[in-house]
Amino acid sequence: MIYRAARPSRPQTFCCLLIVALVAALCPAAWADPTAPGSSDRQITLAVATLVNREHVSRHPLDKEISERCLTTFLKELDPMKVYFYQSDVDEFTRQKDVLCESIRRGDIRFAYQVFHTLLQRVDERVRTVDALLASPLDFTTYEQMVKDSKLAVYPRTPAEAQDRWRQRIKYDLLVLKTSEKAEKKEGKEARDKLTRRYHSYARRMHQMSSDELLELYLNAFTTAFDPHTDYMSPDTQKNFEIAMGLNLEGIGASLMSEDGYTVVKKIIPGGAADKDGRLKLEDKIVAVGQGDDGEMADIVDMKIGDVVKLIRGKPATFVRLEVIPASGKRQIYRIAREKIELKDSEAQGKVFDVGRRPDGAPYRIGVIKLPSFYRDMAGERNHVADFRSTTRDVRVILDDFNRRGVDAVALDLRENGGGALNEAISLTGLFIKDGPVVQVKDADGFVKPYYDPDSDIAWSGPLVVMISKFSASASEILAGAIQDYGRGLIIGDHATHGKGTVQELKDVGSLLLGVFNGPSLGALKITTQKFYRPDGDSTQKRGVLADIELPSLTTHLEGIGEADLDYALAFDKIDPARFQRFDDVDPGVCDQLRKLSQQRVMASEKFQKTLRNIARYKEYKAKKYQTLNEEQFVKERAELNADKEEEHVLEKHSGLNNAGIERDYYLDEVLAITADYVTLENAVKARQEALGASR
After folding, report:
1. Arch. (CATH architecture) of 346-499+538-686
2. Phi and psi (nearest 5°) for 188?
3. Is 504 exposed, middle or buried (0-12, 13-18, 19+ CB in 10 A)?
4. Which letter does DSSP use for residue 39 in this model?
5. CA torsion 140→141→144→145, rounded to 10°?
6. 347, 312 in Cβ contact below 8 A?
């Protein structure tokens, strides 16, 4: 996502990163239900309401439509499948749907507490229902179906309806466990115990929600009523953003996730403290944390993952003790020295591959650059650190190495790149073009400002390919769109990128309220103030950047991922094109030939054909609005394609949790083959043009 940070000095423009579980801390632990708004909540709410009303690009008034959207979103966040609230609860909430904006404008968020306290009551009731159901026999031979489409789901009207909905839900959960990859460990009593723990753990976490977390949740329901990318960031969320942008943190270097109340290790950061120690392994469960050599071991079972991360993080050269249940083995306590961890997996990586044959018989050498984000160490920049971390600097080093090694073409992989610093996207694009506008930005008043390549230097002038997916968002789309508009390179991948074409400005709430920039942290408002456009005048909003050559991929068909799938997304539009000089490095005839050659290889590829079959089954599965609860049918469907598992795998891959660097799989092989064909055909076109020129 794209942001412009507001601060007393020169504004800094930047974009949002996908922040993985490693830095997913939320707010301080609260071991009792939130009872009433905190002391600063009213002021924060007033500031957020004022800023959104005054500065959002849509200039949408705080009216009944926004109030209704706010209520809809808040209920959806708390109870997405409509299994906790009764219809009577929702009817009671709906009586206030037309006045929520007015209450928020006054700084009054008592409605959030009314809804949340009702939710806690219903959660406790449902946990008792779950316990009773899991203690009773369930029939898996009957032919019944459960609604799986949240749009078709309705709130139960009576306790009997709620009981039946949860009976179906528990049957589904047990069937999922039976057909999981570790099914032999999920049968009978153990599976039921696992579900008991899951729902009790969820209830405890909900009761642990702090006032700060509830404020953030409710204000985001309000702000996202204007567009999906305007939201309030709590102090801890803001801190995590800066950690991700700077690609470093202080801790042990492990990605953690909460699973059924346990904190589970999902990734060990290469070169980090845990990696060097060597004892902590993937899928290990951390159950207690102690500070230093003799600090009391705090039980973290059922603790919110954000609070766990806070306990484990700390200053370099200090020690943390972890009580661990290994994936296999007895409980152990590991004493690990914290240190500054550089998130190497999130920085630019380069690798050279030999592909095909040149006319002289030697293989083509193609350099691949994997770029997970457009990062920029803003803290280092503020502190005038001479060599602060920068995407453009790192990619330039890789390109210089490619030039020394005589590569024939460069492929820039943005498939997992959800955004980053806007100025990095502009300067990085400038490494491939001589000069001209990279992106245009329009504000709420219709004023258009182009942003230009900052210098005339070209770090790579040869053939260029940009790899995209539906996860390529914002800053990625700026680069891909500019490369395509300039005719500078080929765009290969999913049908289109994510489709986010809006600019956000990050405003520090504390400095706005108190008038001092270094005052107490009260979080920040990320607000959409502008829209960006490609050099040719097209917005990427909802449409994205279309691939020149599309390859089969499940990510193209994932629901809820693209901008067009998000609630209240702003519309696509156009402005006048900017003036720029095209390179025309992509001949239309060559592009047509490349598509045909690629299609032939895809049709002959067993792995691509398997992908196409999986896509067809996935689309068929997703088109179904109901899920069978008959065990025989369920097992048969899962044997053909576990669509939920496929989705989970893809989402995990694109979150960066399992980023293993640049891997040469069948998909990259096809991109490399297209790139080699591209070099061959473009060289042939140039040779013909030169020969024609000489004959004249």
Report:
1. Alpha-Beta Complex (3.90)
2. 55, -135
3. buried
4. T
5. 50
6. no
| Lookup: tokens for 479 | 């680069």
Nearest in space to 668 (alpha carbons), one of 402, 418, 467 = 467
- Alpha-carbon distance of 504 to 443, in angstroms, equals 11
Band the pLDDT of 684: cuts 50, 70, 90: confident
pLDDT digits (tens, 9 = 90+) for 436-460: 999 999 999 999 999 999 998 999 9
Cα 595–chain centre separation: 30
Q: Which residue has the tokens 């490369």?
A: 483
Q: How far apart are CA 488 and CA 390, in angstroms?
A: 23
Write the CA distances from 348 to 172, 368, 392, 525, 562, integer angstroms.
Answer: 42, 10, 9, 29, 24
- Classify 548 as helix, strand or coil: coil
Distance CA 17, CA 419 (A): 6
pLDDT exceeding 70 applies to what percent of the chain?
87
Tell me the fold of 248-342: Pdz3 Domain (2.30.42)
pLDDT tens digits, 570-628 = 999 999 999 999 998 998 999 999 999 999 999 999 999 999 998 998 888 888 899 99
Helices (H) and strands (E) in the chain, counts: 21, 23
DSSP-assigned states of every residue in 124-170:
HHHHHHHHHHHTS----SS--EEE--TTT----SSHHHHHHHHHHHH
pLDDT in tens, 73-131: 999 999 999 999 999 999 999 999 999 999 999 999 999 999 999 999 999 999 999 99
In 435-561, at which residue ranges do the beta strands (DSSP E only) sit? 437-443, 448-452, 464-468, 490-493, 502-508, 524-533, 549-550
The full 3-state SS of 475-501, as one line of letters, equals HHHHHHHHHHHCCCCEEEECCECCCCC
In the chain, residues under CATH classification 3.90.226.10 are: 346-499+538-686
Please state the separation of Cα 126 from the chain's center in Å. Answer: 31
Q: Which amino acid is at 200?
A: H
| 694 torsion bin: left (phi>0), alpha (psi -120 to 50), beta (else) | alpha
The DSSP secondary-structure symbol of 564 reads: G
How far, rounded to the nearest angstrom, does the alpha carbon of residue 678 sit from its chain's CA centroid?
32
Radius of gyration of the chain (CA): 27
What angle do the packed helices 87-94 and 110-134 form, to 10 degrees?
180
Q: 69: which 2 tokens?
A: 């959207």
595 contact partners, CB below 8 Å, separation of at least 6 = 549
Q: Whose CA is closest to 60, among 49, 72, 76, 75? A: 49
**Which tokens sit at 252?**
């042990």
The pair of three-digit structure tokens given for residue 85, joined into one six-digit string = 């609230």
Q: How many CA atoms lie within 13 A of 208 on its CB side?
A: 20
Q: DSSP for 268-326?
A: E-TTSHHHHH----TTPEEEEEEETTT---EE-TT--HHHHHHHH---TT-EEEEEEE-
Residue ranges matching CATH 2.30.42.10 in the chain: 248-342
Residue 13 parent element (H or E): strand 12-15
Supply 390's token pair: 């920068």
The DSSP string of 408-456 is SEEEEE-TT---B-HHHHHHHHTTTSSSSEEEEEEETT--EEEEE-S-S
Q: Which of 436, 452, 271 is nearest to 345 (CA)?
A: 271
Distance between CA atoms of residues 22 and 275, nearest Å = 14
Specify the amino acid at residue 96.
Answer: Q
Residue type, 616: A
Residue whose structure tokens are 């997996």: 345
* Under 8 Å between Cβ of 74 and 112: yes
Q: Is 595 exposed, middle or buried (0-12, 13-18, 19+ CB in 10 A)?
A: middle
The sign of the dihedral angle between the CA atoms of 62, 65, 71, 72 is: negative
Amino acid letter, residue 551: L
- Output the six-digit token pair for 604: 């002959």
Catalytic residues: 474, 485, 500
> What residue type is 151 in one-letter code?
K
CA dist., res. 609 & res. 614, Å (int): 9
